[in-house]
Design brief:
Helices cover 34% and strands 27% of the residues. It has 406 residues and is an alpha+beta fold.
Length: 406
């Protein structure tokens, strides 16, 4: 098949603004491994890449289509719709970006590896998401309310909750715009963060759930759901004066609540018609139950680890699930673990890029694009145990810094 991949951070989605180095690192890592795996499965792969990134000759196993803006990227997608067999969109739900792009491709008669656009719309707004999930007795979610800046936010929070609470955007992804509020004096800063970063006067307030942050990766067809793995998430949940971040994770993650997490994730996906291909469900594992905090109707960063620990071509498995309604009877894992992490770096000298491209554990190098004085890499390492993988990840971290320091 001829498959077009559009990844928003790398494909011109932020061409008119400076993309966060961390978002670029995650986006390129998913794009690189997705293209690499699809090509290994025998598919012809095309990728849309921002012209500034394309000039750096990034290591992509695909035909590169350079673009200069998001509008240019949309035109490129439209032009290619006539001669491709399928498309895959990797983009955030924020501002309906993922929904609009998938719907646009659907309307042009091209099958996508994504969930159907109506399903993406159904899970992208977190208030709508929680309303649907709360009707299912098998799924627990945090107490969540929608609040507007016109309200007395402190009064609403004091009436409904006790501290700490979480304030976050209605349609954010990852930890974008998220703040943990420990006392009333921090509320104003959290609201201003969302208004400034997301241009939104509406947000959600949620009870803070204590526990282990994880995700479940699932492969889905129109009729079947297969939980693949439980993944550890390394998060920084910060007060409004600092930045909350998704830092990386580990695959697979052994936990006594594994089967409960799988059943909860499966019940969650079953609440929505049209989720297919790859779906991620974010949970908090408390002392007693998994609690669902988000549904990702798109590829997630855990895919980077899954590509290395499963004994099958994971990207091709997404093709089979989304387009052929075909799933494995069960997922088979290799006897290893992968740890992956974003890594802040100084701005890299362009002369070092070719060296970094050749190191397998540097999934995404810290590309020196835009005006940022800092960079961010995405690194990964695997070992026979989680501890070995963690140690090798630190070796990769030191190796990268040594190269950058000459």
């Amino acid at each position: 098949m001829k498959i077009l991949i559009y990844e928003h951070a790398c494909g011109g989605g932020f061409a008119e603004m400076a993309v966060s180095p961390g978002i670029l690192a995650e986006g390129f890592g998913m794009l690189r491994l997705c293209a690499e795996n699809l090509k290994a499965a025998g598919h012809e792969v095309l990728v849309i890449v921002d012209e500034g990134l394309a000039r750096l000759n990034p290591p992509l196993s695909a035909e590169i289509i350079p673009v200069f803006s998001f509008q240019d990227a949309q035109h490129a997608i439209l032009k290619r719709c006539a001669d491709i067999d399928a498309a895959y969109v990797i983009a955030p739900e924020t501002n309906k970006t993922l929904y609009a792009l998938v719907q646009f491709i659907e309307q042009n008669g091209v099958p996508t590896l994504n969930s159907y656009s109506k399903a993406i719309q159904a899970v992208s707004n977190k208030i709508d998401l929680y309303k649907t999930l709360n009707s299912n007795t098998k799924v627990k979610t945090p107490k969540t309310i929608q609040v507007n800046t016109s309200q007395n936010v402190e009064e609403v929070i004091r009436r409904e909750y006790s501290f700490p609470v979480v304030i976050k955007p209605v349609d954010g992804v990852g930890c974008g715009g998220l703040s943990v509020i420990e006392e009333a004096s921090q509320i104003r800063g959290a609201v201003e963060k969302i208004v400034n970063e997301f241009a939104s006067e509406t947000f959600i307030v949620q009870e803070y759930i204590e526990g282990e942050a994880v995700s479940v990766s699932l492969l889905c067809t129109d009729t079947k759901i297969l939980p693949i793995s439980l993944n550890k998430q390394n998060l920084t949940l910060a007060t409004p004066d600092r930045t909350s971040n998704y830092n990386g994770g580990a695959v697979p993650f052994n936990h006594k609540m594994l089967q409960k997490a799988f059943k909860t994730a499966e019940a969650t996906v079953n609440c929505f018609l049209g989720l297919k291909g790859y779906v991620g469900v974010d949970l908090i594992l408390t002392d007693t139950d998994p609690v669902v905090v988000d549904v990702n109707p798109r590829l997630t960063t855990s895919f980077i680890g899954l590509c290395r620990v499963t004994d099958f071509n994971f990207a091709d498995a997404i093709v089979n699930a989304a387009l052929k309604n075909s799933l494995f009877s069960e997922a088979v894992f290799l006897d290893c673990y992968v740890c992956f992490s974003k890594m802040e770096t100084p701005k890299v000298d362009i002369d070092f890029l070719d060296i970094l491209y050749g190191i397998p554990d540097i999934v995404s190098p810290p590309f020196p694009i835009y005006d940022s004085k800092e960079g961010c890499a995405l690194i990964a390492a695997y070992g026979k145990s989680l501890e070995e993988a963690q140690c090798l990840l630190e070796e990769t971290r030191r190796h990268l810094l040594n190269i950058m320091q000459g």
